[in-house]
Write the structure tokens for this entry.
Amino acid sequence: MKPTNTSDPTYFHKVVDCQWACPAHTPVPEYIRLIAHGRYTEAFLINWESNVFPGILGRTCDRPCEPACRRGRVEEKPVAICRLKRVAADNRGVVDHLIPRKGPGNGKRVALIGAGPASLTVARDLLPLGYDCVLIERDRKAGGLMRKNIPSFRLPVAVLDEETDRILDMGATPRFGEEITSMKALLDEGFDAIFVGTGAPRGKDLNVPGRKEASDNVHIGTDFLSAVSFRHIEEIGKRVVVIGGGNTAMDCCRTALRLGADSVTVTVRSPRADMKASPWEIEDAEREGIPILDNHAPKEFRLEGGKLVAVVFEKMRAEYDDTGKRRLVPTGEPDVVIPCDDVLMAVGQENSFPWIERDIGIDFDVREAPVVGKVDFQSTRPGVFFGGDAAWGPENIIWAVAHGHQAAISIDLYCQGQDLMQRPAPTTTLISQKMGIHEWSYDNDPTNSRRLNVPHADPALALRDLSMEVELGFDPGQALLESRRCLNCDIQTVFSTNLCIECDGCVDICPVDCITFTPNAEEAELRQMLRVPAQNTDQDLYVSDTLPTARVMVKDEDVCLHCGLCAERCPTGAWDMQKFLYNEAHASTARLPEQEKKHVA
Amino acid sequence: MTHIVKPQFRHPRLATNSQGLTRRDYEGVISTLCAGCGHDSVTAAIVEACFELELPAHRVAKMSGIGCSSKTTNYFLNYSHGFNSVHGRMPSVATGANLANRELTYLGVSGDGDTASIGIGQFVHAVRRRVNMLYICENNGTYGLTKGQFSATNDRASKNRKGLDTPFDSIDLCNMAIELGAGFVARSFSGDKAQLVPLIKAGIRYKGFALIDVISPCVTFNNHTTSTKSYEYVRDHNHMIGRLDLVETSAEIEADYAPGTSADVTLHDGSQMRFTKLDESYDPTNRETILPALERYRQRGEVATGLLYLDKREADLHELIGTPDQPLNEIDERALVPGSGPLAAINAAHR
């Protein structure tokens, strides 16, 4: 293999698994260390800079960082990153004076349609540059799906209001309670750019016998959740069946319980392992006593006297063909009849754009989805951008934020007449953490403590109250214990070939056998030649230049503890522990003068 | 030295041996030696060899004296017996222990000071008596614990860190051991585990006195450019006379050597040693020719490494003096107290 090019920022960035997995590339280990030190405000601001909604995401994020966490490969469970984020938001000090305001007007007006996470992120990034950001929202309040589809027992309204207001207060121009019915008309208003962040609000329906006849008692999940959030629905039948296996289904069943249902049953077509809901949301629903029946495909809504009395299900089983493609086939077992009064259907969502005329240069593909550039988020009509669920269908909040950041960069470039594909580079720093002999600026002694469970509210109370938050969050003591579990993967092991005397000290001390000195070979062969063969091909090998003995140093990044013992055992300083800080470029920081950047960061 | 305890986490796919143990189960506490010390590599090689030999750690006795090297017995085989003796007196303690319990595996670790200076009188007699043990001398040519004076194994050609010469000739422990009747004599280098680990394995399996003189650089006091025991010097002047592999009887020997250059030797316990010559002219089983050959290497400034001498007879102290077959603590009362009849016979023999 060729020597690893560590000057390419992607190499060390990939080692920071959590940050690499985060769509917004939040510098996770950096803020976790701050939390361990009780510096919650700084931890909050790092999050606010990267993912805009620390309090909201600290409760509701889909947490792609956690399955990626190295701790999960070394021990059993990853660091509770999401819960730690919430600790920063819950315990921070006053930040109002640290939040930038709208910059001196630059004469450009941008319309942001839909005041959900994507549009709010665009506004956050463009306001400091002096853009007039006009947020147009059908509802009376900002938040989009975060307000309508996430029940308040998971996300308190106060947290949501605070974080959406923080952006509005920067100086956005709200046009709330106004529904856009024609893109053409909006274009005529003469905005310099338009961003469509309208989400994927249309819940899918199921066409099974009895659906139409039973429509009084069959509700689309997302519509049901928003009706509950705006208090249009305040009660539900005693027996409720929820159809669907995603996070919306989990929110629906728990909401139904709190509206007074006696028995709630979730049914899923597919096997349990294939359910789309996050494992912790399934866990939360089951903890509240809600059964989840998998392999149940709805076959018929049964009515008596014109009223829904039951749903009939066909039992299914998954079969896989040679290519591994799944097919659900009936098992032939007798149908399952579940008596019920109301049905909530959460079988998927889609974006829909009946309000965008098809003759104004915005192209849609055969599936009626807009054609959007993967890098610049621009539609086929210059100056019109899409992001969040509106772009490619349902994802989650953190993806919407990541889209928002990129769209803001594009809008800025577009309004300044620059090439949209010349994206600003991320900023990176790599600095030695050595403080003295065997002393490092970070806590290099990995703790053995196991992942902590977050405390929950008393179910006797929580199950009756729609707005009582179930998860209580870690207290500062628990946060300290949990944050110490972080392996500091951003503190990189940096190797200097010219200093190495090949004494083997690092090889001998490494607790997880990461390091091997070996003759070089092609990657596949080299992976087999290591002290412990490197089977996890998602993780890179760090290969040095050729050493005096014609060998190379190869480090398998997979389960490195970043404990720094290699550097402590090295007599010549060929190993050093250096902090790699990667900051994704944002419109607000990429173009501001240095002094202003510091203020924003 | 490192301030933290070595983390307990280990690689999730770390191999286990037939004892159900991983390599890390043969480790001891974390080393307090200088960063980069050759002795830590020897420790790691011992750990590796014991893991590969699948030794039950509780059947091993670690013996040592005083010095940086003698501290290292604390850094491997945490679940073994150990005796850290007075300076230079490890050979007699090991001899006594071995006589008392012949069934343990004896592993002595010493240094050039402990062996070639204060303990040389002890060392030579353990060799002579063919005590069944592996004696590893971690040889760095300097007194590290007392801040870098020349030791008795320091070569005439080697200067100290401040450029001073030594007026004395060095003691070559391998030559001495061959002359005194050691059965297994090898020299190796701490920076070459591929050579060292098989030598340790074979030395442990060998019945009789086995010596491995390991050149183990002292990074603090004897790793400068004018030293003959530095990493760089040993790498540049290393003359490997052969490669040794040890295979258990059940395992197949992988024959990837040129034909006609290798010889197999079966040890007393059935394990196979395969010796592959890298130097055609050197025959490690011929006592007549090896000492002149070693002298030639020395004169050329080469460090001859590998298995230098092997006595295939494998006789140890117990055979030489006819001790009982079982450890003393297993001899029952009837054997220990034979009664008045035999006592009378013994007394009669002295009249």
Summary: Residues 250-257 of chain B have pLDDT under 50 and may be disordered. Chain B has one domain: 23-321.
